[in-house]
Specification:
- The protein is mainly alpha-helical and about 240 residues long.
- The protein has one domain: Four Helix Bundle (Hemerythrin (Met), subunit A), CATH 1.20.120.
- The chain is built from nine helices and two strands; from the N terminus they run αααααβααβαα.
- It has a two-stranded antiparallel ribbon.
- α1 packs parallel to α4.
- The chain is globular and about 60 Å long.
Length: about 240
């Protein structure tokens, strides 16, 4: 009799390749730290963007192959959290320490606030809610640092922004999980539109990196428009959850 739980060699190999793909994000994190140490800041942002791309697609690939069945001995969620904590928290924190984005007297305290709030955010039992949202500011410190670098606010303004985001880690707002939109809306076209908006945001960021130190109003407004949309939808779904069918 055929074993219904037997997993094919191809599927197991696919599962291991997906886990390897996820783990490659950790290597990108190390390269990012090295680039920051060498003060090659644009390289840091390109590596950060590559890490975001990996994080954006690896979960989708894992769900397609049912990776918990294909490779049951590896906890993909733990692996993903390890890689994300490195790339979304540790790398941008180190970046803040070696650049002039913060006043010298505030750097250690600000980085402490970032790492402590991220440790809380990552370790919550419901950090990712049952309806696939992030609970509290989802430690997008790499994205925050990108905008602080390009906007060139005063160092004290940067301190205020970063402390505000750290506080928001403890506020139970539900933030959109860009690659898990099932509970955003039942309208397939709207989900596709949100996914497309996320892709366009990534393209606008890549465009800004490509033309730096020049700028483009079109790319800037594409980027900012997505941030406004993301926050607005997150607030709306926090206060008006999608009703269960």
């Amino acid at each position: 009799m055929k074993n219904p739980f037997k997993v094919s060699l191809g599927r197991r190999l696919g599962g291991w390749l997906i886990h390897t793909f996820t783990a490659s994000g950790a290597f990108l994190g190390i390269l990012s730290l090295y680039a920051a140490y060498q003060h090659t800041y644009l390289t840091v942002f390109w590596l950060m963007l590559a890490a975001i791309l990996i994080d954006a697609v690896d979960g989708m690939l894992a769900r397609m192959i049912k990776i918990k069945v294909a490779v049951p001995q590896i906890n993909g969620e733990v692996l993903d959290n390890i890689v994300d904590f490195l790339n979304y928290t540790i790398v941008p924190s180190f970046f803040l320490l070696v650049t002039g984005l913060l006043p010298p007297e505030w750097r250690i305290l600000c980085v402490m606030a970032i790492t402590f709030s991220s440790a809380y955010q990552f370790s919550q039992v419901d950090a990712k809610t049952q309806d696939h949202f992030f609970k509290g500011f989802p430690s997008y410190w790499n994205i925050a640092v990108f905008y602080l670098f390009f906007w060139q606010f005063s160092p004290l303004t940067n301190v205020v922004i970063l402390f505000t985001l750290a506080i928001l880690s403890f506020v139970p707002i539900k933030y959109v999980y860009p690659s898990r939109l099932e509970y955003l809306t039942r309208n397939t076209n709207l989900r596709l539109a949100m996914l497309l908006a996320t892709i366009l945001w990534g393209a606008s960021v890549a465009g800004l990196l490509w033309i730096y130190p020049l700028s483009s109003p079109t790319l800037v407004w594409m980027s900012l428009g997505y941030l406004i949309l993301y926050v607005a939808i997150s607030l709306y779904r926090t206060w008006v959850p999608l009703a269960s069918s």
